[in-house]
Each structure stands twice: as C-alpha cells, then as structure tokens.
Amino acid sequence: MSAEVSTNRLRAWHLAMLEIREFESRVMDLFTRNLVRGTTHLAIGQEAVAVGSAGVLRDGDKTLCTYRGHHHCLARGMDAYAGMAEILGRSDGCCGGRGGSMHLTDTSKGLYGAYAIVGAQIPIAVGCAWSSQVRGTDEVTTVFFGDGTTPIGAFHEGVGLAATWKLPVVFICENNLYSEYSPIHTVVPVINAAADRASGYAIPGMVVDGNDVVLVHEVVGAAVERARAGEGPSIVEAKTYRHGGHSRADPATYRPAEEVAEWMSRDPIDAVAKLLIERGVTTSELERLQADVVERYDEIVERALAAPEPSVEELFDNTYAS
Amino acid sequence: MTVMNYRKAICEGIARAMRRDDCVVFLGEDVAAAGGAFKSTVGILEEFGPVRVRDTPIAEQAIIGAAMGAAMTGLRPIAEIMFSDFLAICWDGVANEIAKSRYMTAGQLQSPLVIRVHNGAGLGFGAQHSQSLENMAMMTPGLKVVAPSTPADVVGLMATAVDDDDPVVVFEHKALFDVKQDVPDGDHRVPFGQARQVRAGSDVSVVALAAMVPVAEAAAAELGSRGISCEILDLRTLYPLDMDTVLASVSKTSLLVIVEENPRPCGWGAEVSSIVAERALFELDGPIVRVAGEPVPIPFAAPLEAAAIPDPARVVAAVESLM
C-alpha cells in the first residue's frame, strides 16, 4: 500500500517524525538536567500515530489531545519554539507559561487543548463536533486518548453522544499496551481496548498498526472522510508503544525485556527510513537530514532557555474575560 | 411588564437569549420534547427547532463536555443539569476544564456558556436532590456564580449570563418556582455584582441569597412589627461578589446577619463575614451572626427538612439576639 504514497510525502512524514523525536529527546534531556518543572509524558515511539493522523486534516479541523500530546501539537504545525518555551515555563510559550508540558495549545493550528484529566477531552471534542454540525460546516474533530482511557465514564458518555447525534468526530486511541503502569489486558475485559467497544455504539471500530505511518494515514483518513460526509463518528485504535515510561519518574521496569526489544525493532521512524531507502533515497541524505534537525533544535532549546519567565504582575491574567 | 412566575421566567430568559443571538443553543436531559423535568422549558423546542434545542442522554459529563466544546468553537450554549446535586457527576468538566481552560491557555480557549441547575431544599426531594451548592462554584476560580431570587432577576441575570464571555453557573431555586412578579419586557438585564436592596432599614443589615431572600423578608415583617428595622440585601451573584453594597449597609446599620441555606461550614456567608470583619470590624456594634443550614444531609420527612434549613423564626431570633 505504500506504493500509493508519493516519495515526497514519505519524506515529509519522515522529517515530521524526526522532529517530534528530537523535540521529545530534548525535553527528556532538559528534564534530567532539572530544567523542566513538574512532570512530562513523552511520546517517543508513538510519532507515526500523530503524523499519519494530522496529514489527513484540513485547516478548520480541530484536534484535542492528552497530557501526552507534544507529538500531536507538532504534527499539526505548532511552532516547536513556542512548545519548548511552554514546557520550560517561559512567557514565549504557546500558553505564556500558564499551561506547561501537559497543556500545549494553539487554536490557530486547530489545536483545541491538551487535557490532563484522563478522558476529559472526549466529551469536549464531541462538543466541538456538535458545533461544526450546528454551524453547518464540514469540519472534522479528531481526539486522541490512550488505552487506559477506555474504562473511564467520560469516554463512554462522549462516544455515546457522538454516535447518537452522528457527529463528525474521530476517536483515535493510541494503544501503547499500558494503562500507566498496568498492562492494559489486566484492566479491561476486551482484546482491543477501544475498537472493541465500537459495536456497542453502532459505529465502526478499526485496529491499525500505529507504528506504520502509511497505514495510520489510510485508516484515519477513511474515518475522517466518513465524518466529513456526515456519516458519523468512528473509533480507530492504533497499536503502538512508548519507548520510555509513563512519566518522568517511571523507568518502566514492569515491561518484559523481550516485549521492549520487539517493539524497539519496529521503530516507526526506522520503518519510514527503510521505505525511503527502498525508493532510492541515500543513507547519507537521511543522515544529513537528522543533523539538520539536531542543529535546529540546538538553536530552539538555546533560545527557549534564554527566554524570560512570565511576570508576576500577570498572575491574574485570563482568569476571567471580564 | 408581564406578570409571570419564576418557572415561566426561566423559559422566558432562555427564549429571549435565543431570539437575540443565533449562536445560543440549549441542551440537557428532557429539556426539549418534554419541556423539562420541572416544565421550565416548555415551548423552547417548538420555537427554535431541533438543531438548536437538544435532548441529551442521561450523561452529565457528555452534556458539560458538549457545551464546552461548542462554546470553544463559536456557540453560546445553555446547558441544563437537572439537579445541582448532579454537578458532582460532571464536576471535572465544570471545575477542571471549563473553569481553567482560559487561564491555562493564555486566553486561547474560551467557554462562554451557561450551566443552569435546579438547586435547593424545601420540597421533600431528599438528600440527593435538595442541596444548595453555590459554594462549590464560588470556590472555583474561573466561574461566575448566579442565584436569582425573583422572576425579574431570573430573566435579567440570564441575559447577562448568556452574553458574558466567561462560564456562568446559574442556580435556580426550585422552591421559588411558583413565585409571581412583574417582569420588564424587552431587553431586561441585571448586571452581575450588584446586590439588590430588597428593603431599606436602619437597625440591622440582613444579607441573603435565593430562597433565603423571602425568608429574610418574612422575618423583617415580623421584626418590623416589633419595632426593629431591617435592611435586606439580595446578593444575586456570589462571583462577582458585591461587597461594596454590603459594607455600605453595615456602616449604616452597624449590625450584620447573614442568611444562607447551605450547611454552615465554608458557606458563602463565611466569606462575606470575613470580609466585613477585615474591612469594617470597628463599624460593628455586635458580632456578625450567620443563620445557616445545619450540617446534615437534607432529610426527607417534613419536620426534619424544615429544621435543617433557615426559616423566618430563626432569622427573627438571630436579629433579636443582637438588640
């Protein structure tokens, strides 16, 4: 199926995934140097879900994500400097340093929030889709969540309302096999944490290899087109793997070594690189690309670290509109 | 002017807002085809149609989330939560999402929406359908909190709430639904943060809210016959809180009694009381007295429910204790 995707498109996806990985690696590095406050949730290993999904959207489409959401924001075009400055609590951050790592937002790119309460974003995304329906537009909303979200009530209430009202929303589960620290199969009764619930709401539920950006693009694309045509919501479950732990304090020692090794061998960026090489792109070209990204992020991190923190005089800004 | 009861005023306030602005939509459980569990939204569906007026499943998290998502993307939803007690089911959406999103995103996400809830005791609904929960909203930065006591205020405060760019929680007191009053026609608006002087007086200031306003009025009538002149203030909104009017009244009367339906611990009256103590202690001629709900779940049996919330006799006794 990758034959149908142009080499230029593969190149763009490869670059987008490289940038996300570099961004996340820099956040990890800054964190271990004690330069990032609080906590972080990285998406290293899950880049293909974000890049493949974002590629099917248009201007005006909305995306909502979770506290593990840097990759989704970058994939939809958030300025990497604004994201990095936010994570460092700087006034140049996309939220002026008010949100932090878990709340990257840029409505000008269709990013309608990253939510740090598990499941909260799902009914809100349904509301965005309802609004599109009421306003008579053909906008689509995509909303991301983890496998650990599927047992929570807000997930079921949101999916149920969207299905009943036939709203233009696509629910995309990033199933990284772990509900925080617990293997997902120990906390849900179904094989596919999200997709298997779809039949209960009479909507399509698809499972896709989340480490294959081409397949993600194809499956999410079909769900988005269905939503745009007014045929209602779908659930897409992308099987993927986080290379690290749940959050900064988690070394993820609960994962079997063989499982980790197997998923590491299925790295989503390596997979695209392999496709590109098959199409004649040279290794040295890919290496140069990687070096360019590293150089760019050296500059982004340097600028973000030098940016000022917000002024205490602005403490109350935006608590209320009036 | 049109005479209408509080129940009809709820409907009138929603209808006027929907006529003024096509972006206003209305959703909740049984609000459309059935006209509301309290028949307070009869006719809204018929006038505005099924795109703007929607019955939802019994799914409060979905209602609140849908309202927020719609508000963030250009609409001005009015969401009904049938009983304020049910806010506990969807408090994440109200307090963590709606209230905080503007702040956390430096103003990028805005939720200009209204959450209407049926609030309060006195009708024998038992402990899970009778609470007065304004305080939960008052303690949450980002929310505005409204609790009308009259039909005119129901209409006028709803107009202000719908046009406000901040999320507003409106606590409609179900024990007031049959209260009738003249309501101004046209674009009647009551601004937030302006307490209403219900009755002028010189001996004691009585500050009340929602269903406690008529309780205070009944007490004031009795006290008047005993030669004690009460000034009654209806706060109308808890955020913004009109302390200027309260402080001006206290500086005139030098005595303050607060009447609140909710259980006493951490009630809004404690906030009002502490501000008066901080800013006007030496203008007082006696202690601040709070007449509040008892710290018990609202009981079912009539004499127990009556004993759990303030009544005119308790207000009379509180005022007389200061004389």
Q: Gist?
A:
The complex is a heterodimer of chains A (about 325) and B (about 325). Chain A is an alpha/beta fold and about 325 residues long.
What does this structure look like?
The complex is a heterodimer of chains A (322) and B (323). Chain A has 322 residues and is an alpha/beta fold. Chain A is built from ten helices and eight strands. Chain A has a six-stranded parallel sheet with strand order 2-1-3-4-8-7, sandwiched between helices. In chain A, helix 1 (7-32) crosses helix 2 (47-54) and helix 1 packs antiparallel against helix 9 (268-278). Chain A is globular and about 50 Å long. Chain B is 38% helix and 21% strand. With 323 residues, chain B is of the alpha/beta class. In chain B, strand 6 (144-146), helix 7 (151-163) and strand 7 form a beta-alpha-beta unit. Chain B is built from twelve helices and 14 strands. In chain B, strands 3-2-4-5-7-6-12 form a seven-stranded mixed sheet, sandwiched between helices. In chain B, strands 9-11-10-13-14 form a five-stranded mixed sheet, sandwiched between helices.
In what order do the strands lie side by side in the largest sheet of chain B? 3-2-4-5-7-6-12
Structural class of chain B: alpha/beta
Counting DSSP E segments of at least 2 residues, the number of strands of chain B comes to 14
Rg measurement of chain A, Å: 19 Å
Averaged pLDDT of chain B, please?
A: 98
Strand count, sense and barrel status of the largest sheet of chain B are: 7 strands, mixed
Figure out the total of helices of chain A.
10
Distance between the termini of chain A: 54 Å
Number of helices of chain B: 12
Order of helices and strands of chain A: HHEHHEHEHEEEEHEHHH
Largest sheet report of chain A: 6 strands, parallel
